[in-house]
Automatic annotation (TrEMBL):
Gene3D superfamilies referenced in this protein's UniProt entry, alphabetically: HUPs, TPP-binding domain
Family listed: Belongs to the ETF alpha-subunit/FixB family.
Protein name per the record: Electron transfer flavoprotein subunit alpha/FixB family protein
Annotated residues for binding of FAD: 209, 234-235, 248-252, 265-272, 286
Cofactor note: Binds 1 FAD per dimer.
Keywords: Electron transport, FAD, Flavoprotein, Transport
SUPFAM superfamilies reported for this sequence: Adenine nucleotide alpha hydrolases-like (SSF52402), DHS-like NAD/FAD-binding domain (SSF52467)
Amino acid sequence: MSKKVLVLIEIKDGKLRNVSFETLTVAQQVAQGGEVSAAIFGSGASSLVEEVNKYGPHKVYVIEDETLTVYTTDGYTQALCQLIEEIQADIVIMGHTSIGKDLAPRVAARFDAGLVSDCTAVSVEEGEVVFTRPIYSGKAFEKKVFNQGKVFATLRANNFETTEKDVQSEIISYHPVIKDLRTVIKDIVRKTAGGVDLSEAKVIVSGGRGVKSKEGFKPLQELADVLGGAVGASRGACDSEYCDYSLQIGQTGKVVTPDLYIACGISGAIQHLAGMSNSKIIVAINKDPDAPIFQVADYGIVGDLFEVVPLLSEEFKKVLV
Ligand code: FAD
């Protein structure tokens, strides 16, 4: 049965997040011929509509409200709830980002609806939309089907193909009533500046306690720069104060699914694997041939990371730079 699907488009640093394109592509599939709408919030949103159009939503709702330029839970909740009512969406999808993780459960609760979070696959089986998500830190997967009410879902970045569609979307300027905001953002202080976003990076070079110092991360950063990727870390490296906790990957850190994950001096504890074992290709560099990381690695290099990593940078530079 065809569905009305609404996608929340996210903007980060003035650019659309790639996970929003993945979400739009999934929306086309689950709509089963029904209407796909996209919502884009904040001042300056209209300048990004053309890019949203490329992924073929039938309608793009532009909510150019200044109070929505920076995310606040109550502002976005009010705007999204009103839009969902307006278009009578059956399915609402967004990225499993910090915004999606915060917003989706709150809005779902307002509609007394089901939420399936952190989906890594979505399919349509005999007309039913099936959402798949990892459980028990990625050791098993559960499939969820909803047979009544609205459905809310968040999608894990880097797990879905994006397909551009040659459709001219209808652009609608929408004006929800935003009132009694309890949160006012006065200033944003960033912990890290620039660089590739870890959660959406296609290549991650990650360092563990084997990196031994802050300085030890330099060759990893260089390799990441050559490959156009981001640097991540194990909790071992963060606990040892070699890097900031914002880089931590794992059960209590970020969950990533890059095309290429290069683990350097990381033993491969289960809590670390929980955050990266779904990466498409895993390369492990470790001087201990019995390190558990080699059990999940597609390619293993037994050796000293301080010798291996610079050699990799040198070789990749020859072909990529
Ligand atoms: P180690 O286990 O000390 O491994 C260092 C590795 O470096 C070794 O394998 C060694 O052979 C290798 N090495 C040393 N020198 C070199 C060299 N020169 N060249 C090559 N290799 C070298 N961990 C996470 O990562 N993420 C999480 O989210 C997380 N959450 C946790 C939650 C809980 C509740 C608990 C209890 C733990 C959690 N941990 C997490 C911690 C986890 O159990 C491990 O302690 C941690 O992952 C170990 O980090 P590591 O592999 O960098 O360090």
